[in-house]
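Worked example (supplementary).
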Amino acid sequence: MPAATSGEVVAALGALDAADLAGVLGYAEGLGLVAATLGVWADPAALVRWSVVGTAGGAVPWDPNEQPFAAHLQREALAWVVAQVDLRAAAAARIGGAPDGARLSTVQLGSLPGVLAAARRAAAQLAADRRSDPAVLELAALLLGELRAALAVLAAGCVTDETPGGAPLAVELEETAPMPDAEGWN
Amino acid sequence: MRKQATTTTLNPEAARIALIQLARADLAGVLGYAEGLGLVAAALGVWGDPATIVRRTCLAIVDGTTPWNPDRMDLPSHVRELIWREMEQRIGRCADAVAGQVSRAELRLSAVQLGSLDGVTRAARWTASRLADDRRTDPSVLELADLMLGELHNELHAIIRRADLDAAPIVAGRRDDAEGTN
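After joint prediction of all chains, the assembly is encoded as:
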């Protein structure tokens, strides 16, 4: 999948309203709630912020012609949670058993893919619910303002798409990334 | 949850219906439902072992502590409803304990929770419904259901056997004999 230009991401973010971003936050929240019980902690807002900045910086591929921006952000949130759960399952499998058969919580009775499918259901439900939740709408509006300001730097050409990894945006990305293995996104 | 003042076991007719309705896959589905609720509730700080909760709920119905009317709802749905109510009450108690001056809409029980608690509990039910379907065919949950069914079927068969013995003519004959010896 080709990486979107920063201009395309800025345009996509400009077209996004607070309810759309609240839905994405709700989706990450739903995933995060189930993942937390499995030992994977993720701040939904940081996860969404990381996905936006990562997409703008080219680290996270996105084809605007194939997927709307909000759906892309949800997919990235899911990919991150699944990757982290898989890591924990692989670690558990080293002790014994197959990763799919791993139990990452005393609450988990059956297979991990079943739990992840249920987490997606919770995420979809909360994505719809949070579009009208006042607190999440407020958070979304704040995040939207912050991200638009940050990405305006890219659009102004201060940091170009060709900027190497050591550029200020990349440094900021590493500092604010919610996960230690950010290179897994590349 | 409404409880009877006195405990009477499930009536034999209801026990027969329960034996039919509580098949292996159905109980695995109930376990999956409890697991789904538990996965979300645990993130809010409310931990519970799904298998223990399901077993306790089923046994409470069998021993008559919790009433069940087969005409109103099938047994697996009734057990799910009871588990949901219990989980909702436990989350509610947890919320009351930490609420202080904060309204329920503003209350956050987890760093992951962004919006209202009611939204999270609705999501928990969706998660539970999804996992209930999934676990009907999950080998390890079916195995757990088998273990649990053994105990539940024993209890239900015992209720039916006692009723059959009470209704059998030989009981009357014994009484006659006993009276004759006195």
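Two points are worth noting when inspecting this output. Residues 1-7, 178-182 of chain B have pLDDT under 50 and may be disordered. The two ends of chain B are 50 Å apart (CA to CA).
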